[in-house]
Amino acid sequence: MAEPKENLQMEKIVSLCKRRGFVFQSSEIYGGINGFWDYGPLGAELKRNVKELWWNAMTRQREDVAGLEATIIMSPAIWKASGHVDTFSDPMCDCKKCKKRFRADQLCEDQGLTLIKTPAGKYELPAGTKCTSCDSKELTEPRPFNLMFQTYVGPAATEADIAYLRPETAQAIFAQFKNVLETSRQRVPFGIAQVGKAFRNEVTPRNFTFRSREFEQMELEFFIKPDEVIEAIHGSVATVPAIGHPGEPQPNWGWQAWHQYWVEERVRFYEGIGLSRATLGFHVQTKEELAHYARACTDILFKFPFSKKDENGNVKGDELEGIAARSDFDLSQHQRFSGKPMGVFDEELRAAWAKLPKEKSDDLWKRYYDHRKNYLTKSAKPDETPEQISKQATDDANGLARGQYIPHVIEPSAGVDRLILALIANAYSEETKTDDKGKSETSVTMKFHPRVAPFKAGIFPLLKNKPELVKKALEVRDLLRPWMNVFYDESGSIGKRYARQDEAGTPFCVTIDFDTLGEKPELLDTVTLRYRDDSKQERLKISELRDWLLARIR
């Protein structure tokens, strides 16, 4: 589990993760397996808390989002339609001398170089590129390496039985779009959310859990009306400021407003679990970086200990989440490959279209036609002619008058494991104290936001050899257990118990002492409450403890 020694902060974080049970190397007793990680007791709780908070924010607190949980293995035709079978690859090269394998773009980036992409779509290493392991310049030419894990379905391992472990959770949402639309009684605009495992056979997994071969995603596909539909119904498409939250959704929002809305909503979520804007960064993808079907994509970055600096010495950050405006590409692809309609009917559009002046309807028709023709041309099958493409685009544009269109989509897609690593890195705090004898000791406190902390409170009897203290402490533990995850500890001194909970990130500790039992009558049935971040203490009535804690952990 060791990180490069020059990154001392990451080395400390990785060490803590193993020592305290946040993250373990998968199959460690057999030497481990590269790119796979297991979450220990604290890590499992932390991860569960994050996923539950995301799900609650995305679905239960909204009227316009429904949930889905789809299978990991789906029809391979889905991955053909999405383009993963043909294009989901990274450029890979090998050192001819030491035989080490690299992802070509990362190899170049590590040396301040940029991988060259030729007009033919192939890759070339720039002059001067060398192996970062042995300094040899004898490197193979970059070649594509498909990232999907292949498997077989059924007893026969033939080509006809090939299937894939899903490399993302999004495509299941698109494939089930119509079923969810019909059963959830939703109307566009609305979203479908999913949390689940995904698998990518990364060429070079690195940076601890940041880039793994098995990981979890939290994805929302939010379906919206095309701008032409918005303009037909409302007369114009609203414009919103390019910076800041645009406010509550409005009926006349187009894709730009929705995209800005979801960027800001996702930042609000991160702020709500302890990642301030100061720890985040943003990268607006350039036209060259965007997928051919995307209109925009904003990456939310976190400044990890391993994140590189720019030419001005500022930490750039690495991607936590991407919010993409994906147009109607995905639903269109599945409609074409499956032969099943993925469009929707909108009575409001049909009624509005009939009232439009001819000049206006012609303009909207032409814009929609051009968009559809552009998509169909770029995605054309080898046997499709320009005439067929034009006819299909015409049919699609004619559908507007009948109230029919294929929704566009805004996709906020976050990596759970990357977020967990960001929370751990953000929470990690060291303090060195020197006693009267000159002896220095460094302690670690994990300053998690109470909402994500694995344990919300530590429950301690002052002394374990006093049955009356132990009995009362267990009563307090059982009072809180149905409402939150708490940790009971009676071993060692109070100071050591506090220190253990500080390392676990527990925000509050509750000590049952003799005053709790009435040694001072006025303090009967009160406890000592200790704050993790500043070690301050106060007395609180047991009868008020549950509600006091709930107000701070939700």
Helix percentage range:
25-40%
Q: Structural class, judged by helices and strands?
A: alpha+beta
Average pLDDT, to the nearest integer? 94
Provide the low-confidence segments as ranges.
1-5
Beta-strand share of residues: 15-25%
Radius of gyration: 28 Å
Biggest sheet details: 7 strands, mixed
Shape: globular
CATH top level of the largest domain is Alpha Beta
The name of the CATH superfamily of the largest domain reads: Bira Bifunctional Protein, Domain 2
Query: What name is given to the CATH topology of the largest domain?
Result: BirA Bifunctional Protein, domain 2
How does this structure look, described?
By secondary structure, this protein is α+β, with helices and mostly antiparallel strands. The protein folds into 4 domains: 8-88 and 147-330 and 409-422, Bira Bifunctional Protein, Domain 2 (BirA Bifunctional Protein, domain 2, 2-Layer Sandwich); 89-146, no CATH class; 345-405, no CATH class; 455-553, 3-Layer(aba) Sandwich (Rossmann fold). The chain is built from 17 helices and 25 strands. Strands 3-11-12-18-15-14-13 form a 7-stranded mixed β-sheet, sandwiched between helices. A 5-stranded mixed β-sheet has the order 22-21-23-24-25, with helices on both faces. It has a 3-stranded antiparallel β-sheet with strand order 5-4-8. Strand 24 (526-531) and strand 25 form a beta hairpin. The longest helix is centred in the middle third of the chain and has 21 residues, at 358-378. The chain starts with 7 loop residues before the first helix and ends with a helix. Mean pLDDT is 94; it is low at 1-5.
